[in-house]
Predict the structure of DNA-directed RNA polymerase.
Amino acid sequence: MKVKCFFFFFFFFFITVLLIGSNISCVLSVLFSETLLWLQQRNFSSLIKREDGKKRALERFQLLDVLEARIQQLQSDVLDVQHVKVQVIKAPSSGRGGPPGRGPKNKTQEKTDFPKSAHSGTKGASKSQPSRWMEKLSQEKKNKIKKQQHLQQKIQKTVDEKPAPKAKKSKSSQMLPGTSHKIISSAAQKTITTDSKKQVPSREGQRQSAKDAEARAKEIAEVEELEKRLSQQVSQWASSTNSERLVVDSDANTCGDIQSSLRSYLEACVFAGDIERAHQFLLSQHRTMNRRKQLNIEMYNIMMRVWAKKGTLSHIGRIFILVEEAGLKPNLGSYCAALECMGRTPNCSPRVINRCLSQMEEDGLSVDDLFSQCVFRQDERDMLLRAVRTVQPDYQPKPNTTLTPCASPLVQDFYSQRADHQYPKLDFSQEELQERFKRQLSMEQACTVTIDSVEVAMPVTENMTKMRELLAEHRSQWQKTLLQALRESKMILAKTNTKDYRLNLYPYLCLLEDREYVDIMIQSVSSLPPSGESLKILARDLGNRLYTKYCVQQKGRNQIVEKLSNIYNAYTDLLAKDTKVYDVLPREQWCQLETEHSSGPTLQGDETHWPYTVTVELGTYMVDLMVKNLKINSDILNPACDRKLIPILYHMYTFRSTRQVGFIKPHPILTQMLQEAMETKLTFDSYVIPMLCPPVPWISAKFGAYLLTPTKLMRAIDGATQHELLLEKCQNLHAVLDSLNQLGTCAWRINKPLLDIIISIFNDRGSDKLDIPPPMSEAPKIPHFNPQDPSYTSTEKAHMKREVIKAKKKCSEMHSLRMDALYKLSIANYMRDEIFWFPHNMDFRGRTYPCPPYFNHLGSDVTRAILVFAEGKPLGPKGLDWLKIHLVNLTGLKKRSSLQGRLEYANSIMEDILDSADNPLNGKKWWMNADEPWQALACCMEIANAVRSPDPTRFISHFPVHQDGSCNGLQHYAALGRDVIGATSVNLMPCDVPQDVYSGVAQQVEEFRARDAESGLKIAQVLEGFISRKVVKQTVMTVVYGVTRYGGRLQIEKRLKEIDEFPKEYVWDASHYLVRQVFTGLKEMFTGTREIQDWLTESARLISKSGRTVEWVTPLGLPIIQPYHRTRYQVLKSTMQHINLQISHDAKERPDTVKQKNAFPPNFIHSLDSTHMMLTALHCYSAGLTFVSVHDCFWTHALTVDTMNKVCREQFVALHSQPILQELSNFLLHKYCTGLLHQKKQFILRLYPDTGPNHSFFINAK
């Protein structure tokens, strides 16, 4: 057997040498000598102790893994062999020699013994002569010195394959686990020699060796000096620091998804009570080396928690042994479980507890760390405290009351100087808020909410009743069928060998009651669109619903609900109107209450997010059950048909562009039944409904918003974890969290009169003009024809096919719009008598969003119009004027007029305003011609109520007045570049009348057109009279957000097509012409904008080319990373189909350079925009204002518009008084340019555009 193994190694290395080439042969000889020595040692040890067959086989495979890893490392290093010095260890002919690499290490280059140990086990080799590989290497180095003029070209050629190593750091970073680090080292650093006492060369050999060493040292020094001079011209791929970072990042993320899958599987087993399965699974992973590497300490801790609950200390001791075998180090969670178990064990020996505490201290961990950093469930903290007090009776955990001051200079005064702060109270008593908390808690525990549809008001026909009864009957039958199918399927999965290391879905199917799975599946059938849904999307939604229910039930089992109730009831003391006034923020109050209620579980849980693949796989399993088991009689609607059972769902394929996509489509019979039934009930997930009580304040990246429903602080693509890791490392997010909490504490209510008008139009026939989608009865009929009919010509058949596709597309769009409106209006109608709140989170750029997805103030004109503030404030002396100005702004008229001019215009049309309020559907209908008709109508009604009140200044108004930024992106660019002309055009400089940049660009483009028309350009002549503000607005607005000329042309093309009088045959040429003129006009108006954009783009290009993703930190300290990586494809196999997942956020993949560089300018501006909004929100809150935002559009009461405008201007000036570009440049230099080969990158990153002197920018109110 040994002979065969030895022959295999010979053959393996022979093939490798042929593949790699002669440049690496010398290094392979070194590796081979190591292999011989290892085999000799192993053979010798086998005489002492015979191993069993399995262990020997395992060791051989481990050796093979090591050898393969070494060859991969050598392949990557082959082109850089001139950088390293090869020192060969002689394989001893007997057992006298020590193991490889254990001889003394020489510290200087002169002491290196090159030829003596150069032979590698070849029998006839002379001891005093260097090996032929060493001679060949020496000759190669001499040749390189003679050909120095070609070295630059060679380096340039190889850098694309592998970064040039600078020193030992780069070399070691490239090595894989199990690879020796003792053979190859930097020429100027470490070398390895044999023991001089065991190997004494002759005097001639010593002199020759010294000469050779000195000569080689000189040659290598000259080569390295040359390469150092050339390093400035080497591309960023040659950076050793960069190479090291790539390897570190890769190692950190290699097993990320796998570890998450393993941990979620173990937690599912434990939650389902299948402890034996979890234990056997962990052991099966631990026993095999390849899979053991995927385990981390948290997975062992999961089982430690289980045995701690049972009080079996012996099992925990065995797991500690497994942890040691895995080469892992116990962490706080490990010791916490051990001490908890000791606390549960009656009469546990203090000596055992002391030994555990001593070991913990040796590992650098303290008892205080246990109580401040561990996440506790149920009574774990109390048991831990009991164990500690057994040996330290007077021990008291230290409360974590230290508040880190915010580092950003923008908010230091906000947190340190609070004497004049007036934090607003809610218009509720403490008892009312506590009652609302109970209602919200009950809703989230149920996970779903069933509400009445707004279509319930429609008259019920006989056919509708019949269809509803049929659906109810079949749903009852489907539930029974699915319940039986699910239980049978689980029985099959349960028989899977629990010792098998493979993951299966059985534990995930035991987390909830079987009926809960069935209810989720039945709910998804009712909401399936007639055109079907992608299998991947449908499966993801099903999996997410299961995860949400699992998390809610997990919190209930961990006894979090009771503690949450106690803390929230105390928290209402801060918000209620009948309690004392506090000078602390909601986040600070909640943290203080958590400290006071320290016993029991930790509210900030450490639940593992299910990996995207697990979610989709679980959802696919449920879809498969539905497709196979849900059936209906074929003659249910047409008795003339033959009766047979047919599936109600079909699995089919369709094409999206060039990709084939799996689809789940409902049978036309089911679609017809659902449409004709027009059911009066809608079921939503609980997080879709606005909250009935103020949200839990965000106190960290892991806790806030809903009471029980899991919510992420930062939204991300499914599966992306980069943002979470950054946020966890960030120690001070106070300003960001406090601004989100401020937005979430704003209470809302429904504008009921307006809602009733909208519902009446919705239930009538809708209105395209007013953005109310019509019912499906108004959809075009899909033409039917027989393609095999010979009476049709090929041209007619092609035309008919196009008409069918067009009709189907129109029907699908109409259904989507109709259902979207139905959901929004039904939720609004459900909340018509309620006060409610919108919890907020943010995207990776810091832009804030309400968490409820359908109904919120970021929605369309319709949803914004039916939302008003719950708290009313008197209009005051100027409030009515602001309402009138706001109404004119909503019409889209008088863009270039001053505020006084707009007010005068509003006064001149008061008759139309009052008529619109009194007779919205039967009067003059003036409001219908506004840009935002429904918001305009709501404002008309508010103005009418105010002017008809006895004293308009005392009229209590709930209406939100908007102050919108003037092309906000250009405002930030103008401020960054200190561009006075550009700043003037976007209202950052004092002007008699508000400026309109869109009209200004349109006017400039018209001048270009007139000039070209005079010179005879045909398309310029055709465009006469068609260049308007509306045509260019979208392109101007999005240029600062990275729109390309291609995208701009599409935008202009769409606007031109909307003009009925414009000749359609010229749309293509006209859009090409106009997009060029718009870009030219912007370049002339905003001189600094393009310069800043180019610098940001080039910086991102260099960073991403070096293999790094672009990161930065906002002025408020929010870390941001762009998650754009090269797309990789992962195939998820299931019984239905293989799902091809396109993953573009995988940190293991190299960055997508195009996306990174194109997205950096707009994302950076978005982050500044969000920073300005957050600053405004904080200072408005401290001034007692009601404030919400829709990105760059700020809302408040009419009474406080002037105060909000003042705060907005002050914070904009404060933000841009900071050296933003300089700080960004310094951050990028520090993060990405720490190596020697970054001169070009450093040069670019330091060349941020000169911002010039500060100007007193401010935002004029529109």
